Amino acid sequence: MEKINCQPDVNTCNSLINCYGKNGDANEAHMRFKEMQETGLNSDVMTYSTLIECISKTSKVSFLNIVTYNILLDCLPKCAKTTEVLEFYVKLKQQRLTPDSITYVVLEQSESRNLKHNPIIGWE
Protein backbone atom coordinates (compact mmCIF):
# COMPACT_ATOMS: atom_id res chain seq x y z
CA MET A 1 0.00 0.00 0.00
CA GLU A 2 2.85 2.36 0.80
CA LYS A 3 4.21 1.86 -2.74
CA ILE A 4 1.12 3.55 -4.14
CA ASN A 5 1.19 6.24 -1.45
CA CYS A 6 -1.82 4.84 0.39
CA GLN A 7 -1.47 4.66 4.16
CA PRO A 8 -3.44 1.90 5.89
CA ASP A 9 -5.95 2.87 8.54
CA VAL A 10 -6.82 0.99 11.74
CA ASN A 11 -9.46 -1.10 9.95
CA THR A 12 -6.97 -2.22 7.30
CA CYS A 13 -4.43 -3.14 9.97
CA ASN A 14 -7.05 -5.01 11.97
CA SER A 15 -7.99 -6.97 8.84
CA LEU A 16 -4.35 -7.91 8.23
CA ILE A 17 -3.88 -8.96 11.85
CA ASN A 18 -7.07 -11.00 11.63
CA CYS A 19 -5.93 -12.72 8.40
CA TYR A 20 -2.58 -13.68 9.89
CA GLY A 21 -4.35 -14.91 13.01
CA LYS A 22 -6.77 -17.06 11.05
CA ASN A 23 -3.78 -18.49 9.22
CA GLY A 24 -2.24 -19.45 12.58
CA ASP A 25 0.64 -17.01 12.33
CA ALA A 26 0.53 -15.15 15.65
CA ASN A 27 4.10 -13.88 15.25
CA GLU A 28 3.29 -12.18 11.94
CA ALA A 29 0.07 -10.77 13.42
CA HIS A 30 2.16 -9.34 16.26
CA MET A 31 4.60 -7.81 13.74
CA ARG A 32 1.68 -6.06 11.97
CA PHE A 33 0.53 -4.78 15.38
CA LYS A 34 4.01 -3.41 16.12
CA GLU A 35 4.13 -1.72 12.70
CA MET A 36 0.74 -0.22 13.44
CA GLN A 37 2.08 1.27 16.68
CA GLU A 38 5.26 2.52 15.01
CA THR A 39 3.26 4.41 12.38
CA GLY A 40 1.21 6.11 15.09
CA LEU A 41 -2.10 4.37 14.41
CA ASN A 42 -4.20 3.97 17.53
CA SER A 43 -5.28 0.40 18.18
CA ASP A 44 -8.83 -0.25 19.26
CA VAL A 45 -10.86 -2.95 21.00
CA MET A 46 -11.04 -4.90 17.74
CA THR A 47 -7.23 -4.86 17.46
CA TYR A 48 -6.77 -6.31 20.94
CA SER A 49 -9.63 -8.78 20.61
CA THR A 50 -8.17 -10.04 17.35
CA LEU A 51 -4.70 -10.42 18.87
CA ILE A 52 -6.06 -12.26 21.88
CA GLU A 53 -8.07 -14.57 19.64
CA CYS A 54 -5.02 -15.20 17.48
CA ILE A 55 -2.72 -15.95 20.41
CA SER A 56 -5.28 -18.21 22.06
CA LYS A 57 -5.36 -20.46 18.99
CA THR A 58 -1.64 -21.13 18.73
CA SER A 59 1.18 -22.28 20.95
CA LYS A 60 3.84 -21.20 18.42
CA VAL A 61 4.22 -17.67 19.74
CA SER A 62 7.74 -16.40 20.27
CA PHE A 63 6.99 -13.03 21.84
CA LEU A 64 5.13 -14.05 24.99
CA ASN A 65 6.74 -13.55 28.37
CA ILE A 66 5.31 -13.04 31.85
CA VAL A 67 4.69 -9.33 31.18
CA THR A 68 2.77 -10.11 27.98
CA TYR A 69 0.73 -12.78 29.74
CA ASN A 70 -0.09 -10.37 32.56
CA ILE A 71 -1.34 -7.83 30.02
CA LEU A 72 -3.40 -10.48 28.23
CA LEU A 73 -4.84 -11.78 31.50
CA ASP A 74 -5.80 -8.22 32.42
CA CYS A 75 -7.32 -7.44 28.99
CA LEU A 76 -9.41 -10.60 28.61
CA PRO A 77 -12.18 -9.64 31.06
CA LYS A 78 -12.24 -6.13 29.59
CA CYS A 79 -12.92 -7.66 26.16
CA ALA A 80 -15.72 -9.85 27.57
CA LYS A 81 -13.53 -12.94 27.38
CA THR A 82 -13.48 -13.90 31.05
CA THR A 83 -13.67 -17.62 30.33
CA GLU A 84 -10.27 -17.49 28.59
CA VAL A 85 -8.43 -16.22 31.69
CA LEU A 86 -7.92 -19.72 33.10
CA GLU A 87 -6.92 -21.05 29.66
CA PHE A 88 -4.20 -18.41 29.36
CA TYR A 89 -3.04 -19.07 32.90
CA VAL A 90 -2.68 -22.77 32.06
CA LYS A 91 -0.73 -21.87 28.88
CA LEU A 92 1.53 -19.62 30.94
CA LYS A 93 2.32 -22.54 33.26
CA GLN A 94 2.78 -24.95 30.32
CA GLN A 95 5.41 -22.62 28.87
CA ARG A 96 7.23 -22.88 32.21
CA LEU A 97 6.83 -19.19 32.94
CA THR A 98 6.74 -18.23 36.60
CA PRO A 99 3.74 -16.15 37.64
CA ASP A 100 4.73 -13.02 39.54
CA SER A 101 2.86 -10.87 42.03
CA ILE A 102 1.25 -8.92 39.19
CA THR A 103 -0.08 -12.16 37.70
CA TYR A 104 -1.81 -13.02 40.95
CA VAL A 105 -3.22 -9.52 41.39
CA VAL A 106 -4.66 -9.66 37.86
CA LEU A 107 -6.12 -13.12 38.53
CA GLU A 108 -7.71 -11.94 41.76
CA GLN A 109 -9.18 -8.92 39.98
CA SER A 110 -10.61 -11.26 37.35
CA GLU A 111 -12.05 -13.41 40.13
CA SER A 112 -13.64 -10.37 41.72
CA ARG A 113 -15.32 -9.61 38.36
CA ASN A 114 -17.38 -12.76 38.92
CA LEU A 115 -15.03 -15.08 37.05
CA LYS A 116 -15.65 -18.65 38.13
CA HIS A 117 -12.45 -20.67 37.94
CA ASN A 118 -12.00 -24.40 38.05
CA PRO A 119 -11.35 -25.29 41.70
CA ILE A 120 -9.44 -28.44 40.68
CA ILE A 121 -6.82 -26.46 38.73
CA GLY A 122 -7.11 -23.22 40.68
CA TRP A 123 -4.47 -20.53 40.35
CA GLU A 124 -1.65 -22.61 41.90
TrEMBL record:
PPR repeats lie at residues 9-43, 65-99. Keywords: Repeat. InterPro entries: PPR_rpt (IPR002885), TPR-like_helical_dom_sf (IPR011990). Pfam families: PPR_2. Belongs to the PPR family. P subfamily. PANTHER family: OS03G0856100 PROTEIN, PENTACOTRIPEPTIDE-REPEAT REGION OF PRORP DOMAIN-CONTAINING PROTEIN. This is Pentacotripeptide-repeat region of PRORP domain-containing protein. It comes from Aquilegia coerulea. The lineage of its organism: Eukaryota, Viridiplantae, Streptophyta, Embryophyta, Tracheophyta.
